[in-house]
Amino acid sequence: MREFNVALAAPEWILSATILVVLFQDARTRWDNKGGLGRTTWLGLLLATGCAMLQGWFVDTPATAFLGHYGVDGFSIVCKAIFGATALFVMAMADTWLKRVDRGHGEFRLLALMATLGMFFVCSVRDFAGLFVSLELITVSFYCLTAFKRNDERAIEAGIKYVVLGALATAFLLLGIAFIYGATESLWFHKIALTEASDGVGGNAALLEFGLLLTVLGLCFKIAAVPFQVWTPDVYEGAASPVTAFLSMGSKAAGFVLLLKVVRACLGPDGDAGIILATGAWAGLFALIAAATMLYGNLGALWQGNMKRLLGYSSIGHAGYVLMGVLAFNEAGFAAVVYYLMAYLFTVLGVFAVVIIVNGALRSHAITDYAGLGRKSPFLALVLTCGLLSLAGVPPMAGFFGKFLVFQAVVQLGTPVAYTVAFVGAAGVVVSMYYYLCVVKQLYMVEAPEGDTRLDGLVVAKPLKAVLWVCLIGIFVLGFLVQPFVAMAQDAAEALMAAR
Amino acid sequence: MLPFLLAEANQPRDWLPVLVLLLLAVGLAAVQLLISWLLGKRGETNEFKDSPYECGIEPVGDAHTRFSVKFYLVAVLFILFDIEVVFLYPWAVHFGGGEPDGVIFQERPDLLGFLFFEMLVFLAVLFLGWYWVVKKKALDWERV
To answer: Do B77 and B120 fall into the same domain?
Structure first.
């Protein structure tokens, strides 16, 4: 534990070096010569992601570095692969988009890289100080990214809303950490379980529980769950589409990774239900948050005529489904969360890739404008349809197995609370089917108005085409070849449960 | 050190100083307001007495003018580079080996080199940031 073991953090070192090189390049080049920045970013992201995945074979896990503050285990490696893939997909979308905007090449890439660095650290943190710093690295980068279109009123509005609500949530999180520190006298995650187990909590049990409550509420902001979900549709609508894609996958997944780590820390040393989480109040609280989130997201999405707002509400709904996996408080539930995140990666990024292409031609996000896409651009319509059906959870797609595992984990608990939340979730799925299919209906059943040629002859740039194909294949691979990926998610959950 | 910051502080009575401090803070403010309300003379109010005093001249325009964004930019950059001192100063104090660190460095003299190298890296990153700021002409008052 006393070792620095600097080389273990190689993926983070690579990302940090990439950031510095891009910064230097950005300072050295003229505004009309920013192509090199993109190449450096790609190289850095590919190397960092590859390095993180290689650690799965070449590092004797679990291993720690920096006096134990940084850890690599099966869980962190799988999560880093998810975040690395997210960043690569988003960068492919951003390349095309940045060419169109032709402004702030350096700033966008730097901020996106910094957010990715934060996400990588999130996977490896082992104490609350690391949790806070890595989470803020992500959040502050996203504040700037959200308001990136600084001449657009919507983007400014989204940025301000995100900052104000984000600051409030950060205050909750920080106060929660302070209370946990007061109760456990340390910032380590594993001290929570030790404090519970040694029964040394004594008069501090209330402090610890209050601290955990505030921490969980603070994390609800990142995952866009009730009670901190209000920002989601406005920010999703106002931010540029690649940023929205990054926000809906990367930022949300980072919140879930941390939530899993905190919940794991409250469980007993052998993974049995800890003293705190064993009490019915906590299961009830998580169930309440999950049910309210699913209802809010799915009912809110019913009335949306704007594609990005619809995806914003749907993203709230999905946060609720994933929370069901968390509230199982056991290995099966955590494995379901990891699998859900893998499936969500391909699904939601595929949908956003189509949204970016269509918006490039339409300059609008109105769902009615998607009419006739099925005839004019069959491939785009196919990817969008598969993505939406996967979001809805239709059987052969990736999203179905994500939902299946989550519901299975909850129903196996067998408590009345679990049955209730599963019932609310099932109702949410049925409702969501309606608004996803409404979009599909627009694609195929409604013809574009006479003379509207905006969607004719859509040209898709190469990197975006690659994203579309990978997402389409991913949606079906995670739907048909379930077993290896479920095994991967189970290994990750097992590593999380074994974490000290 | 205050008793409630110590490790053994887990009894409710150990938190008594916090309560006393809270009561004092709230009480002081309340008493001051109350005294000025009780003892203060309140004359008539009228439109002229309520208007803001501006050197005897009639106020012109709105006091809430908007400042150029230049000022904020410089302020933010100042804070960013000011943090440098927050890191450098404790580092410089502890580098020689204060009481808690001295023990570690006696066991592990190699950590001293690590500590020195770490600060060099920090300064290099900061310098690169400064270079970027200068190149982006963020400190160029006329251009911004």
So the answer is: yes
| B130 in any annotated domain | yes
| Partner-chain residue, chosen from A26, A203, A204, that has the shortest CB–CB distance to B132 | A26
Within chain B, what is the greatest distance between any pair of CA atoms? Answer: 76
The CA distance from A23 to the nearest CA of chain B, in Å, is 7
Residue B57 falls inside a structural domain:
no
**pLDDT tens digits along A261-312:** 999 888 876 666 666 676 778 889 999 999 999 999 999 999 899 999 999 9
A 10 A CB-CB count for A332 gives 17
Q: How far is CA A478 from the centre of its chain?
A: 18
DSSP state of A369: G
pTM, 2 dp: 0.88
Token readout for A278 is 């064993």
* Assigned domain for B117 exists: yes
Beta bridge partners of A221: none
Rounded CA-CA distance A144/A124 in Å is 25
State how far the Cα of A429 lies from the Cα of A171, in Å rounded to an integer. 33
Is B109 touching A (CB cutoff 8 A)? Answer: no
What is the residue whose two structure tokens read 């997909």? Answer: A89
Sign, Cα dihedral of B99, B100, B101, B104: positive
Q: Residue A23: what are its φ and ψ, rounded to 5°?
A: -60, -45
Find the CB nearest A203 among B12, B125, B132. Answer: B12
Distance from CA of B32 to the nearest CA of A (A): 31
Delimit the domains of chain A by residue range. Answer: 279-500
Q: What is the number of domains present in chain B? A: 2
A438-468: burial string, b at 16+ Cβ within 10 Å, e else: bbbebbeeeebeeeeeebeebebbebbbebb
Question: What ipTM does the predicted assembly reach?
Answer: 0.81
